[in-house]
Automatic annotation (TrEMBL):
It comes from the Eukaryota. Residues 58-86 are annotated as: Disordered. The chain crosses the membrane at residues 29-51. Keywords: Membrane, Transmembrane, Transmembrane helix. This is Uncharacterized protein. It comes from Remersonia thermophila. Residues 71-86 have a biased composition (Basic residues). The lineage of its organism: Eukaryota, Fungi, Dikarya, Ascomycota, Pezizomycotina.
Length: 86
C-alpha cells in the first residue's frame, strides 16, 4: 500500500512541476513582450525628443598623447576619488 501512495505522490509532484514550469514560461514570455513594448516606445519618445543623439555623441580631444607602456591599470571596478576609509 505504501508503494502505491509513493507512486501517486511522485506522479502528482511531476504533474505539478510541469504545470508550474509552463506557467513560469508563459509569465516570462509576457514579461519579455511587455518590456519590449516599453523599450520600443522609449526609443520612439527618445527619438522625438532628440535625447538619444546627444548622449551618443563623442567629442574628440585633440593634443592628447597615447598612454605609454609604464601606465598600469590598478584594480577593477569604479574609481573612488577623495574617499577615505572610516
Amino acid at each position: 500500500m505504501g508503494a502505491v501512495v509513493s507512486c501517486m505522490q511522485s506522479a502528482f509532484r511531476a504533474v505539478g512541476r510541469t504545470v508550474m514550469s509552463v506557467l513560469y514560461g508563459i509569465g516570462n514570455i509576457i514579461t519579455a513582450v511587455v518590456y519590449g513594448i516599453i523599450d520600443f516606445f522609449g526609443a520612439i519618445v527618445g527619438c522625438l525628443t532628440c535625447s538619444g543623439s546627444s548622449r551618443r555623441r563623442r567629442r574628440h580631444r585633440h593634443g592628447t598623447t597615447a598612454a605609454t607602456t609604464s601606465t598600469r591599470r590598478r584594480g577593477w571596478g569604479r574609481r573612488r576619488y577623495g574617499v577615505s576609509a572610516i
